[in-house]
C-alpha cells in the first residue's frame, strides 16, 4: 500500500469535494448540476437563519451564483429529489439507482411512513393521483387544512402526508420548487425515461454501485465511513471492500496516524499521485454548511480534520456550546473554527453572533485575513454587506477581525 500523510489525505478529500482551491472562474448555470454530480448528494434542509443549506454548500464550491439556479436545475430535470441519507438532490444520471435501492432495500423513516400510508389509506392516495393526472402538478398549499388542524405526522394535513407518501413510494416526483415549496407531479411526467424498460438490478449490484459512488465522492475514506454517505446497511469492514480492491475499482492506501486503511477510487488515480507527491495545495477558505458532506459524519470529520462537529439547532438553547446554526470554517485545508451567523436581510447586516477558534489553535494574520474575506464574500452574496462582529472566542480576536473586514471595504470602495 502507498502511504499518505494526514495532510495529503485531507487534500485528496477536499479535491474530490471541490473545496481544495477557489473557483477558477465565475459560476455558470450548468455548474450546479455538475457540482451535485461530483458530490453525489446535496442534502436538503429548511433552516435559513443564514441561507438554506443546499445554497450554502453550492456557494462554498462555486462562489457567487444566483440561488434560483438550483430551482432552475431541478425544473430542467437535470437533478431530482430523493431519500438518501436524508432528503437530498441527486444527479439525474443516478435516478434509476436511487429509485431501485429505495424501492427494494432502503430502510428510512420517510419510506416507512409511506408504506404505512400505502397500507392504510391507498384509496386516498389513488384519488390524489387521479387529481394530479387530470389537473397537473400540485403543491400542498393547494389543499385547505380542515378546521385549521393537521394530522399526527409533523402536524401535516392529510394531503401533505399523502403527497409525501406518494413521493417516497416513487409514484410522484418533485417537478420544481416555488419559494422552496415542493411541486409534485407524476413521476413519468417529470422523468419520461422511467417509461423505458430497464433491466432489473440485483440488490448486491446496487449496493456495490452506491459503495463506489460514496468512495468516489469522498476522495479517500475508511471502510467504516462508506455506508453513511448514502446510509446503506450494514456498516462496512475492510473485508467488505476486498472484492472492489481485487477488481481494481478501488485502491487500498495507508494514512499516517490512522488505525485502518484508506480507500481511493480508481477514477481518482491521478489525484492520488498528486497527493502522494505533495502537489495538491489547499488554498481555499470558505464557510461551510452544517450539512456539508465534509462535516455531516462526525467521526469522519474528527478523524480527518481533528474537528468534532455537532449540530446544535435541535439542542435546547441553554445547553448549546457554540450556537444555533454554526458554520464550520474551512481555511487552506484545515477546519480552524466555527461561526454562528444570522443574516438580517431587512437591515443589510450579516451578524457574526459568535466565532470560536478551534481549541488549541492560534490564528495567524493570514488566518484572520482569509476568514475576513470568506465572511465578507458570504455577506455580500446574501445581500447583507455590513458585517457585525458580536462576539469571538478568544475575545481578543474581534478587534483584528474587524480591522481586516474594514480594510477589505477600503480596498473595494465600490463593494
Helical proportion, percent range: 40-55%
- Output the structural class: alpha+beta
Tally of separate helices:
15
How many beta strands in the DSSP annotation? Answer: 16
Low-confidence stretches: 150-155
Which radius of gyration do the C-alpha atoms yield?
23 Å
Task: Please summarize the sheet with the most strands.
Answer: 6 strands, mixed
The N- and C-terminal alpha carbons lie at a distance of: 51 Å
Mean pLDDT: 93
**Net shape:** globular
Proportion in β-strands: 15-25%
InterPro entries: AlkZ-like (IPR009351)
Pfam families: AlkZ-like
Describe this structure in words.
With 415 residues, this protein is of the alpha+beta class. Helix content is 41%, strand content 18%. Strands 11, 12, 13, 14, 15 and 16 form a six-stranded mixed sheet that branches.
Entry summary:
The protein has helices at residues 6-17, 30-39, 53-62, 68-75, 95-104, 109-135, 158-169, 187-190, 203-218, 223-230, 242-247, 269-276, 298-305, 365-381, 398-411; strands spanning 3-4, 42-43, 79-83, 87-91, 138-139, 172-178, 181-186, 221-222, 250-255, 262-265, 285-287, 326-331, 334-344, 349-357, 386-389, 392-393. It is α+β, with helices and mostly antiparallel strands. The longest helix has 27 residues, at 109-135.
Amino acid at each position: 500500500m502507498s502511504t499518505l500523510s494526514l495532510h495529503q489525505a485531507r487534500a485528496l478529500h477536499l479535491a474530490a469535494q471541490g473545496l481544495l482551491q477557489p473557483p477558477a472562474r465565475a459560476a455558470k448555470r450548468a455548474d450546479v448540476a455538475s457540482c451535485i454530480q461530483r458530490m453525489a448528494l446535496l442534502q436538503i434542509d429548511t433552516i435559513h437563519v443564514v441561507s438554506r443549506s443546499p445554497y450554502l454548500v453550492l456557494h462554498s464550491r462555486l462562489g457567487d451564483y444566483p440561488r434560483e439556479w438550483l430551482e432552475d436545475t431541478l425544473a430542467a430535470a437535470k437533478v431530482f429529489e430523493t431519500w438518501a441519507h436524508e432528503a437530498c438532490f441527486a444527479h439525474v444520471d443516478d435516478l434509476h439507482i436511487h429509485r431501485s435501492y429505495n424501492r427494494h432495500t432502503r430502510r428510512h423513516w420517510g419510506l416507512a411512513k409511506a408504506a404505512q400510508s400505502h397500507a392504510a389509506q391507498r384509496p386516498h392516495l389513488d384519488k390524489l393521483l387521479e387529481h394530479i393526472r387530470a389537473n397537473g402538478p400540485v403543491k400542498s398549499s393547494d389543499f385547505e387544512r380542515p378546521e385549521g388542524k393537521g394530522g399526527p405526522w409533523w402536524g401535516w394535513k392529510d394531503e401533505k402526508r399523502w403527497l409525501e407518501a406518494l413521493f417516497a413510494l416513487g409514484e410522484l416526483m418533485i417537478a420544481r420548487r416555488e419559494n422552496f415549496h415542493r411541486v409534485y407531479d407524476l413521476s413519468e411526467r417529470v422523468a419520461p425515461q422511467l417509461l423505458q424498460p430497464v433491466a432489473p438490478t440485483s440488490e448486491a449490484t446496487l449496493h456495490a454501485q452506491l459503495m463506489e459512488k460514496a468512495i468516489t465522492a469522498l476522495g479517500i475514506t475508511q471502510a467504516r465511513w462508506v455506508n453513511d454517505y448514502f446510509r446503506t446497511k450494514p456498516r462496512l469492514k475492510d473485508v467488505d471492500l476486498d472484492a472492489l480492491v481485487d477488481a481494481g475499482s478501488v485502491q487500498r492506501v495507508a494514512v499516517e496516524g490512522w488505525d485502518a486503511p484508506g480507500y481511493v477510487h480508481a477514477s481518482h488515480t491521478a489525484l492520488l499521485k498528486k497527493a502522494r507527491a505533495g502537489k495538491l495545495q489547499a488554498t481555499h477558505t470558505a464557510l461551510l454548511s452544517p450539512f456539508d458532506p465534509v462535516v455531516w459524519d462526525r467521526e469522519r470529520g474528527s478523524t480527518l480534520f481533528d474537528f468534532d462537529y455537532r449540530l446544535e439547532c435541535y439542542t435546547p438553547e441553554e445547553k448549546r456550546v457554540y450556537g444555533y446554526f454554526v458554520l464550520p470554517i474551512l481555511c487552506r485545508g484545515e477546519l480552524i473554527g466555527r461561526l454562528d451567523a444570522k443574516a438580517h436581510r431587512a437591515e443589510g447586516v450579516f451578524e457574526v453572533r459568535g466565532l470560536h477558534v478551534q481549541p488549541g489553535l492560534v490564528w495567524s494574520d493570514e488566518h484572520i485575513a482569509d476568514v475576513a474575506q470568506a465572511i465578507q464574500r458570504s455577506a455580500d452574496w446574501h445581500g447583507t454587506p455590513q458585517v457585525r462582529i458580536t462576539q469571538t472566542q478568544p475575545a481578543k480576536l474581534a478587534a483584528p477581525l474587524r480591522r481586516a473586514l474594514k480594510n477589505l471595504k477600503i480596498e473595494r470602495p465600490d463593494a
